[in-house]
Design goal:
Layout lengths: L7 E12 L7 E7 L2 H4 L7 E4 L2 E8 L4 E5 L1 H6 L10 E6 L20 E9 L2 E8 L13 E4 L2 E9 L4 E6 L1 H6 L1
């Protein structure tokens, strides 16, 4: 479980579609750098959310870590399209007994979304989005929440007929994701 509050931004070092190393598991893998802030208490097998996707740490150092990517993960996310140098949102799994400031987010991704409109409003920004899998629209409700690239956000408006929804991003969130 995660909160949807991004702890830090990492940087993609490498995406391998076939990683035959032990930590790559003979499948796809993703290596992330600039992650020192979240690796101090890391262990092999820990869960870290990359852009909201719950993934298992298979190798790590003081500043970098590697995760394996299952075919299901690649089919439902854009993680396989990341390039070296791309920035990603990172969050460690919740620790029992600690306060959290977001929503309960599983990190199990259902689909991707397309931004169809961006509208500034004072110091905030409205985003209108359309999900790739239209069957998910009944589960998106006004004043509910949705995680986008690992950031938990409140849903503002939903239009089932035209199959879009909106969120509003405050200034603080804009500078941290």
């Amino acid at each position: 479980m995660f909160t949807g509050i991004v702890e830090c931004k990492g940087r993609v070092v490498e995406f391998k579609s076939l990683d035959n190393t032990e930590s790559g598991g003979s499948g796809a893998s993703l290596t992330i750098a600039d992650a020192k802030d979240i690796l101090g208490d890391c262990h092999l097998g820990d869960s870290i959310a990359i852009n909201g996707t719950c993934l298992t740490v298979t190798e790590f150092s003081s500043d970098e870590f590697k995760v394996g990517l299952a075919p299901e993960t690649l089919s439902r996310t854009n993680l396989g399209q990341l390039q070296p140098g791309d920035h990603v949102n990172l969050e460690r799994a919740l620790a029992a007994g600690h306060r959290f400031g977001g929503h309960f987010v599983q990190g199990h991704i259902d689909t991707t979304a397309e931004i169809i409109e961006i509208t500034p409003d004072a110091n905030s920004i409205w985003y209108k989005l359309r999900v790739a899998d239209k069957k998910l629209m009944p589960y998106i409700i006004p004043k509910g929440f949705i995680a986008l690239d690992g950031t938990s956000l409140t849903v503002c408006d939903v239009n089932d007929d035209d199959q879009w929804f909106t969120i509003m991003m405050i200034a603080y969130t804009q500078t941290h994701v």
